[in-house]
Amino acid sequence: MRKIISFMHISLDGFVAGPNGEMDWIKVDQELFEYAGKRISKGNTALYGRVTYQMMENYWPAAGDKPAATKHDIEHSAWYNKIHKVVLSKTIENTGLTNTTIISDNLPDSINEIKQQAGENILLFGSPTATHSLIQQDLIDGYWLFVNPIILGQGIPLFTDVKDKIKLKLLPTTRQFTSGVTELNYTVDRP
């Protein structure tokens, strides 16, 4: 069965965005782009909340075609255009969308149906509201966290309204980047 892995930048004090959704504190450089690009290139399904999906749709489909496109833009745009996208939204209609599935209700059954399909793990990108919903339904199987060397003090937390303890197991793929960002990989330790 496929697993849902949450891919998230996080501050040392557990926030994924500032109070107004700011992400200008996230450290991203060529080293991190190349590393993340290699890891996500193996995936064939991306999961987004509505806000993150619309942000991605506004940029990535044509990013690789722009005259000043970077290597990262070209590679990530090609990946984004070929993967299957799953979006959690009650407002987007599932009409005319290319290679995209909208889930608007019955979250556990819909997600578990997608988990049963053939393919690689499902990567959940950003999307704090969607992440919170999936955590509450115990549908996330792992966390791929990029801990940024900053304390925000306030903002949108990664973990909120957690009903039960979630036991995690640290995987040996932990890595520190020259920017000071530390990658932590956890799998949910279910009985």
TrEMBL record:
InterPro entries: DHFR-like_dom_sf, RibDG_C, Riboflavin_Biosynth_HTPR. One of its GO terms (biological process) is riboflavin biosynthetic process. Residues 2-173 form the Bacterial bifunctional deaminase-reductase C-terminal domain. It comes from the Bacteria. One of its GO terms (molecular function) is 5-amino-6-(5-phosphoribosylamino)uracil reductase activity. PANTHER family: 2,5-DIAMINO-6-RIBOSYLAMINO-4(3H)-PYRIMIDINONE 5'-PHOSPHATE REDUCTASE, DIHYDROFOLATE REDUCTASE FAMILY PROTEIN (AFU_ORTHOLOGUE AFUA_8G06820). The lineage of its organism: Bacteria, Pseudomonadati, Bacteroidota, Flavobacteriia, Flavobacteriales. This is Dihydrofolate reductase. It comes from Sinomicrobium pectinilyticum.
